[in-house]
Write a structure and sequence with these properties.
The chain is α+β, with helices and mostly antiparallel strands and 326 residues long. It is built from 10 helices and 17 strands. Strands 10-11-12-13-15-16-17 form a 7-stranded mixed β-sheet. The chain has a 6-stranded mixed β-sheet with strand order 1-2-4-5-6-9. A two-stranded antiparallel ribbon has the order 3-14. The chain has one domain: Metallo-beta-lactamase, Chain A.
Length: 326
C-alpha cells in the first residue's frame, strides 16, 4: 500500500473542503423571498392567498383605547418590536366557474416593500385578464391601489363590487370637498382607482348582505369605514370569513378586541364589530383570513379567557402548511 500517495490524497481533499467552505462562507446574501402565494382547498373551492408585501408602522402612534405600557407588554409577548410589519394580503377564490379576487393590494403606491400582487398573481398561475370579479372590503389605498396601473384598469375583464355605502362615501366629490385637508387624498385615490371601471360600466355596488356569486356572500361590518364589508366563502360546509380590516395588530387586538386604531372612521362601531365577529367565528369554528395578519393570514380563533373589563380574549391559531392534492 502506497501510504505516501494516500497521505497526498488526504491533504488534497482537506484543501478542497477548506476552499469550498471559504467560497461558501463568502457568498453574498440574497435578501429576497420566494413568490408570495399560498394555496389551500375549501370544499370544492381553491383559495390562493396573495401577498402584496409588508408595511412597517409604529403602532404606539396608531393604537387607541390602550396605554403605551399595554402596547409594550403586548408586543413583547408576541416577540415583536417597533416598527411592526403589517402584511398586505389579498385572496383569490376559484369557485370552478368564477375567479374572484378579494382586494387588490397597494399598486406599489406605498413604497418599495409592497406592490407585489401582480407578480405573485402571475407566479401562482393566473393573469390579471382572467379575473372575473373583484370584491373590495373597503376603499383605503392598500386595498384598492392595485386596481389600476398607469391609470388604466389592471383587470380589464373584471366586474368590481363594493358596498353601496362605501362607494357613496369615497366616490362623493361633495364629501371630499367638505373633508379636512389631510383627508382629501383618500377620496382622490379612491376616485382614481375606480375611474376606469366606472367609465367602462364595470363597477357595480351592492346593497346589504347578499350572495354575489354562488358560495361568496358579502357581510356588512361598518366601523373601520362607513361601508366596510367582509366576505364569507362557503363550500361543502366549510367556511372562510375574509374580514378585511376588521383588525390590524393581532398582538394587541386578539387578546383585547376593544383596542382600536386611528385608521378607523368610527372606532366605537369598529370595536363593536370586532367583538361580535371574534365571538361568532370562534363559536362556529370558521376559518378567517385577514388583510393584515402575517402572511398567509389564515387560521382559526380560539377563545382564551377574558381580558380587561371582562371582555373575551382570543388566540389566533394559524393553519398548518399543506399542499393541495392534485
Amino acid at each position: 500500500m502506497n501510504f505516501a500517495l494516500i497521505r497526498m490524497l488526504q491533504v488534497a481533499a482537506i484543501s478542497l473542503f477548506t476552499i469550498a467552505g471559504a467560497a461558501s462562507a463568502s457568498a453574498p446574501m440574497q435578501k429576497t423571498q420566494a413568490p408570495g402565494y399560498y394555496r389551500m382547498l375549501l370544499g370544492d373551492f381553491e383559495v390562493t392567498v396573495l401577498s402584496d408585501g409588508i408595511l412597517p408602522f409604529d403602532v404606539h402612534e396608531l393604537l387607541t383605547n390602550i396605554t403605551p405600557q399595554q402596547v409594550d407588554t403586548a408586543l413583547a409577548r408576541a416577540y415583536l418590536k417597533e416598527p411592526v410589519e403589517f402584511s398586505v394580503n389579498a385572496f383569490l377564490i376559484n369557485t370552478g366557474t368564477k375567479l374572484v379576487l378579494i382586494d387588490t393590494g397597494t399598486g406599489g403606491s406605498f413604497g418599495p416593500t409592497v406592490g407585489a400582487l401582480p407578480a405573485n398573481l402571475r407566479a401562482c398561475g393566473y393573469r390579471p385578464e382572467q379575473i372575473d370579479e373583484i370584491y373590495i372590503t373597503h376603499m383605503h389605498g392598500d386595498h384598492i391601489g392595485g386596481l389600476t396601473q398607469n391609470g388604466k384598469a389592471l383587470f380589464p375583464n373584471a366586474i368590481v363590487r363594493s358596498s353601496k355605502d362605501e362607494a357613496d362615501y369615497w366616490l362623493s366629490e361633495a364629501r371630499m370637498n367638505s373633508a379636512p385637508a389631510g383627508a382629501k387624498d383618500g377620496f382622490k385615490s379612491a376616485m382614481a382607482a375606480l375611474k376606469p371601471y366606472v367609465d367602462a360600466k364595470r363597477f357595480h355596488p351592492f346593497d346589504g348582505n347578499t350572495e354575489l356569486v354562488p358560495g361568496v356572500r358579502s357581510v356588512l361590518a361598518e366601523g373601520h369605514t362607513p361601508g366596510h364589508s367582509m366576505y364569507l366563502v362557503s363550500s361543502k360546509d366549510q367556511h372562510l370569513l375574509l374580514w378585511g380590516d376588521l383588525m390590524h395588530v393581532g398582538a394587541a387586538q386578539f387578546p383585547n378586541p376593544a383596542v382600536t386604531i386611528k385608521f378607523d372612521t368610527d372606532s366605537t362601531a369598529a370595536a363593536a364589530q370586532r367583538i361580535k365577529t371574534f365571538a361568532d367565528v370562534a363559536a362556529k369554528g370558521y376559518l378567517v383570513g385577514g388583510a393584515h395578519i402575517p402572511f398567509p393570514g389564515v387560521g382559526h380563533l380560539r377563545a382564551a379567557g377574558v381580558s380587561g373589563a371582562a371582555k373575551a380574549s382570543y388566540a389566533f391559531v394559524p393553519i398548518a402548511y399543506s399542499v393541495p392534492a392534485k
